[in-house]
Description:
Radius of gyration: 20 Å
CATH architecture of the largest domain: 2-Layer Sandwich
CATH superfamily of the largest domain: ATP-grasp fold, B domain
Order of helices and strands: EHEEEHEHHHEHEEHEEEEHEHEEHH
Helix content: 25-40%
CATH topology of the largest domain: D-amino Acid Aminotransferase, Chain A, domain 1
Distance between the termini: 30 Å
Shape: globular
CATH class of the largest domain: Alpha Beta
Structural class: alpha+beta
Largest sheet: 6 strands, antiparallel
Amino acid sequence: xxxxxxxxxxxxxxxxxxxxxxxxxxxxxxxxxxxxxxxxxxxxxxxxxxxxxxxxxxxxxxxxxxxxxxxxxxxxxxxxxxxxxxxxxxxxxxxxxxxxxxxxxxxxxxxxxxxxxxxxxxxxxxxxxxxxxxxxxxxxxxxxxxxxxxxxxxxxxxxxxxxxxxxxxxxxxxxxxxxxxxxxxxxxxxxxxxxxxxxxxxxxxxxxxxxxxxxxxxxxxxxxxxxxxxxxxxxxxxxxxxxxxxxxxxxxxxxxxxxxxxxxxxxxxxxxxxxxxxxxxxxxxxxxxxxxxxxxxxxxxxxxxxxxxxxxxxxxxxxxxxxxx
Length: 325
């Protein structure tokens, strides 16, 4: 008798292709072959689907699958596009649905949701069109303390994020990002403090929304912030649970739960914050946080005694409608 057919979908045409491959590899390494028939689905950088080294299509793959473990990250993976494909073929999948994924991936929409929910978030300017760059950058230089953070409006793993000061460097960073299809550019004030992240998982240990211990993130001295390079280089110290006072830990947990709810997410998510003397500031929410060996969510799961294979089994159960909130 065959087990549940689980397709692990990884790769994809995004700037986080390599991270997705690592997340998918970790899933493949930890999924029980005694209980599941596992299919490894690779999507290349051009968006072509592959199985066992041969090009294929969603129409060939998905009808024979019971559930998808979505290991994609970034554009196409977390912005609702791949979710629309799964929904088209009626295949259950892990993570948030297409609409919630789109909203959470768009940093401006997510920040506005946070503000409506009463959370602090860094002040920002959103630039969508190249022809607006000169005027808005001039305004940013006049009204924001320098340096500022420049980031794509959509994206993750700090890909494309820089810290710049002064008109020319900021303008160059903004126009460089606008030349790419990233849905606009966000320029934020820099909040000085300690970076933190907090994950939540639905239905874990009989809690409707189980809070994992918040993590304190300490990038190396040479890094201006938690950049893409230091996220995956092993140079960053990640302390689980973080060394924050209890009231800060409680607020981080509550804020992560709040963002999961107000963004309409499902199954699991991880929200990022800055703990500063001015309070806790919300940065963004990851609807498909990395699940590599170096990633933050597995570390917080391990800290509370949840092993990676058990987490995957739990996610599959959620996707199949077992243990829903």
